[in-house]
Write a structure and sequence with these properties.
Layout: H1 2-24, E1 34-36, E2 40-48, E3 57-65, E4 68-74, E5 85-88, E6 92-96, E7 98-103, E8 106-110, E9 113-116, H2 120-127, E10 130-135, H3 141-153, E11 160-162, H4 184-197, E12 201-204, H5 210-222, E13 226-229, H6 236-242, E14 246-247, H7 269-277, H8 284-295, E15 299-302, H9 304-308, H10 319-324, H11 327-341, H12 349-364, E16 369-371, H13 386-396, H14 401-408, H15 410-416, E17 433-437, E18 452-455, E19 458-461, H16 462-468
Parallel strand pairs: 2-5, 2-6, 7-10, 10-11, 12-13, 14-15, 15-16
Antiparallel strand pairs: 1-19, 2-3, 3-4, 6-17, 8-9, 17-18, 18-19
Helix pairs in contact: 2-16, 4-5, 13-14
Length: 476
């Protein structure tokens, strides 16, 4: 047996060595997807939505030099250097690369299992226009950290990543990959361990206690990290009073309006649904909660994409997303979608509309609304398509297109402390740009036509990425 183990070890070492040697001879990561990598690139005659929330500007020229935006103005005012690569962008719209803050590197595999998508998801996020992202909870933190570092080194393509540690949750969640906190000391130990390993934010989850959440916030802040949460046992008001930085899923998971809610306990789903059905968005309690959040500088993340999948009458995932799924996963998803269409769930069309518009109410009052897509649920949220859909749903909720883009770009960059580099199209910033073929200001459906995405001045052919990823979602 010892000899067999020795032989296996020798063979494995030889394989790894030969694989490493092969990898050293490979071209630069993602080069097969690159359409433009010239040092100086000019996009001319474009419509520009710059991410600040201001009105779109027509007939603009954007000049990139070594990955930076060095000019952005009316074409007549921009001198294009000799030798520059010129892309005629007439009829096209330029947007900042999306900065999405509720993303994951895993995907539902059925039941309570989630598969890590460290191969397909970074590529798909990039192909869908997301150039910066935060994971909002991890099933395999080391995989997320290693992917983040590989992208930063240029060994892989994908968005720049802020990695959130594993879910911080108490007992009661039937997901084998999630650790159950045993108390406040365990919460502190977990935060410190993952801070030492390199995560940059934390996410509390549904069954956490108030004492555990308070300890998580206190320790994370000492480590210069922020805390977000998908809450249930703890109310938004309680979390705000503790000093939380961010709350996830808009108001779709708030338990503040449930009558006779018990401390540190999740109410029944029917009671939460009833609280939403009877909720008056103009009531003093809603206005007071929004004011409290804004006064304490608590950001709110919109994830309309995942909640839409549970609402009767909402569309199925687009064909492009279906093509990306492993066949067995696609069949599972379509079966679940069909059941939603015939089952009255917690989120009726009326409740969905009310809660989505409540996000605009929060933003209109001065709150920092962020965007994310949350590729969980039963599989209908697929990177590459989900960020575009989130923008479409924000517009449906009452935001102007320019406002929706600000939520999905600049606001996220501001929250992550990256707004001096990314999040808007401006001279001096990094050239992270989504190119839309058409005018999404007239029809948000034009977002689906995104042939090019630039990250740090390198332009990627999105269709080549999508084609290469067919059948991978749900697999790896």
């Amino acid at each position: 047996m010892a000899l067999q183990r020795s032989l296996r070890a020798t063979v494995l070492a030889g394989l790894l060595t030969s694989m490493s040697a092969f990898a050293a001879d490979k071209p630069a990561a993602g080069s097969e997807f690159v359409a433009y990598a010239q040092p100086i690139i000019a996009l001319t005659h474009a419509t520009v939505v710059d991410g600040t929330g201001g009105k779109a500007k027509k007939d603009q020229t954007l000049l990139i030099d070594k990955g930076r935006i060095v000019a952005l103005d009316k074409g007549s005012r921009v001198k294009i250097p000799d030798g520059a690569t010129v892309i005629d962008a007439k009829g096209k719209t330029l947007l900042p690369g999306f900065v999405m803050v509720h993303e994951h590197m895993f995907y539902p595999a059925g039941g309570v299992e989630y598969n890590e998508m460290s191969y397909s998801f970074p590529r798909l996020y990039l192909a869908g226009g997301t150039t910066t992202m935060r994971t909002a909870g991890s099933m395999m933190p080391y995989a997320d950290l290693n992917v983040r570092d590989a992208i930063a080194r240029g060994d892989a393509i994908g968005p720049d990543m802020d990695v959130t540690g594993p879910y911080l949750n108490g007992p009661g969640l039937p997901i084998p990959a999630v650790h159950s906190l045993s108390g406040v000391d365990d919460a502190e130990r977990t935060v410190n361990y993952w801070a030492d390993e390199g995560v940059t934010s934390y996410k509390a989850y549904m069954q956490i206690t108030r004492a555990e959440l308070q300890r998580v916030i206190d320790v994370a802040h000492k480590r210069n990290a922020k805390v977000t949460a998908h809450l249930c046992s703890v109310t938004y008001r309680e979390a705000v009073d503790m000093g939380i930085d961010n709350l996830e899923h808009g108001f779709f998971v708030a338990t503040d309006f449930v009558k006779d809610k018990q401390p540190d306990a999740c109410p029944r789903g029917t009671d939460v649904a009833q609280s939403f059905a009877t909720l008056d968005p103009k009531s003093p309690e809603v206005k007071a909660l929004i004011k409290l959040m804004i006064d304490h500088h608590v950001a709110l993340t919109s994830t309309l994409t995942v909640f839409e999948t549970f609402v009767t009458g909402r569309p199925k995932a687009p064909q492009g997303a279906l093509d990306l799924m492993l066949p067995e996963v696609r069949a599972q998803y379509e079966d679940s979608w069909n059941k939603v269409q015939t089952t009255k769930g917690r989120f009726t069309p009326e409740i969905y509309a009310k809660l989505s518009q409540l996000e605009k109410q929060y933003a209109d009052a001065g709150g920092l609304l962020l965007a994310g897509t949350d590729p969980t649920g039963y599989g209908g949220v697929v990177p590459g398509f989900s960020a575009k859909r989130e923008v479409e749903l924000l517009v449906e909720a009452g935001f102007s297109f320019e406002q929706a883009i600000k939520v999905a770009t600049y606001n996220g960059a501001r929250y992550l402390g990256r707004d001096k580099e990314v999040g808007s199209l401006a001279v001096g910033k990094r050239a992270d740009i989504a190119v839309i073929d058409g005018d999404p200001l007239k029809d948000t459906g034009a977002l689906e036509h995104m042939p090019l995405v630039f990250k740090n001045g390198v332009g990627y052919d999105t269709q080549k990425i999508f084609s290469a990823m067919h059948g991978t979602v749900g697999l790896h």
